[in-house]
Design a protein that fits this description.
The protein is of the alpha+beta class and 145 residues long. It has a single domain (8-138), classed as Alpha-Beta Plaits (2-Layer Sandwich). The chain contains six helices and four strands. The protein has a four-stranded antiparallel beta sheet with strand order 2-3-1-4, sandwiched between helices. It is globular and about 50 Å long.
């Protein structure tokens, strides 16, 4: 085969440092993250979240690693926020979960309805549920610390 054919959907979740309510302009942040991803040839199929965390569904091309994308998203958006006069930082880690094409619309809906979802469920409970669902072993103090 002379070409690489790939369509990899990755659901990415990361929060602000200490889950502080740092993100005041949600739409502005989502737009900025889309712009960063575009510079790396990555389409963001969905972006959402709340004032303290982000959910992204990235369509990852084979030529870029998730680690490179995450460094660019978090580093550039932090710089942008700090240059705009906000004391801003993201939490060090992130979660990344594969999404099948058959489940894509359900996960997109989940990302779009984050504000509504978090009226019932905390970020911490949501993140640990995602880890469990995907069979990822974790220690709660490392997640919440």
């Amino acid at each position: 085969m002379s070409h690489a054919y790939a369509r990899n959907y990755i659901h990415i979740v990361f929060s602000t440092q200490e889950r502080r309510q740092f993100i005041r302009d949600l739409e502005g942040m989502w737009k900025y993250l889309r712009g960063i991803a575009s510079e790396y040839g990555v389409e963001l199929a969905e972006v959402g979240g709340t004032n303290d965390h982000v959910h992204i569904i990235a369509v990852m091309p084979p030529k870029i690693s998730l680690a490179v994308l995450m460094r660019a998203l978090k580093g550039n958006s932090s710089k942008w926020m700090n240059e705009a006069g906000h004391l801003f930082a993201w939490q060090q880690g992130y979660g990344a979960f594969s999404v099948s094409a058959s489940n894509l619309e359900k996960v997109r809906e989940f990302v779009r309805k984050q504000a509504e979802h978090h009226q019932r469920v905390t970020y911490e409970a949501e993140f640990m549920a995602l880890l469990r669902k995907h069979g990822i072993k974790f220690t709660p103090e490392h997640i919440l610390g």
